Amino acid sequence: MNGIICINKPMDFTSFDVVAKIRSIVRIKRIGHAGTLDPMATGVLPIFIGNATKVCDILPNNDKGYRAGFKLGLSTNTQDITGEILYRHDASAISEDVISNAIRSFCGEIMQIPPMFSAVKIDGKRLYKLARQGIEVERPPRKATISEIKLLSYNQEDLCGELEIQCSQGTYVRTIIHDLGEMLGVGGVMTSLVRTKSGIFTLLDSFTIEQVHKYHDDGILDSKLMAIKDVLFEYSDIHLNEKQSKMFYNGVRLDSTRISGCDSSSGIYRIFDSSGKFMAVGEIDDRKTLRIKKSFF
Description:
Strand 8 (121-122) and strand 9 form a beta hairpin. The two termini are 13 Å apart. The protein has helices at 15-26, 96-103, 127-132, 173-184, 209-217, 221-224, 228-231, 242-249, and strands spanning 3-9, 31-33, 42-49, 64-72, 74-76, 85-88, 108-112, 121-122, 125-126, 142-155, 160-167, 188-198, 201-202, 206-207, 236-239, 254-255, 267-272, 278-284, 289-295. By secondary structure, the chain is α+β, with helices and mostly antiparallel strands. Helices cover 21% and strands 36% of the residues. The strands form four sheets. Strands 1, 2, 3, 4, 7, 10, 11, 12, 13 and 14 form a ten-stranded mixed sheet that branches. It has eight helices and 19 strands.
């Protein structure tokens, strides 16, 4: 079994919990995921099965989409509602218009300081492990790109609202909310998080763990998997003739200028053999040489 299936991650599951559940259902050891979700988050979590685990690090588009609930007027050590409250402020004067104007400054490329309660490693140690010991260390800021951020709703009475965010991989949504609260001078925490998109996957493409279990029991799970080549659709195709296919299968690097229909531009390509079978992800370098980057044979 090789392919990708998107899971709608349930609340209070870690991403690893989901991987373990799917592994126990399909009885396949080689399973991975793309894009970690916090336990309180739900939504799109692509799961890669078998040979598909090879493509996790070469996905052409891994941007994310989120709907995030927030509450103003308090700050916590985790930057979300589950953490220890550090302070409270009166946020009754903050209006919907004020928030809408403030979030504009988050559009584009921003710098974020990773929260202490995160899986980032500093000097080989996970930040969340240090945070649980009451240790706070300096964290270098990281770049994130916010392509779109919208205020979907805000209730000035209970100080709660919801944001819609489209962003680059590695963006901390709770840090956006924390920084927004700091900008407004009242504090802010994330109260909920739903990932609505991960690369090409959306909630509409996602299945529950229970559905996966039923599909497996019914013997139709294979039909629900996305083929490896399809998740890489943004890469251009190279089709090899019979001789080139045999050489490439044996690991021989090819002169891309001798491949029919190949423009020899540097980059990553989907490689198909003479029978039309998807065989590898290849890369053409500056010397016009085509080599195997990831093989699937």
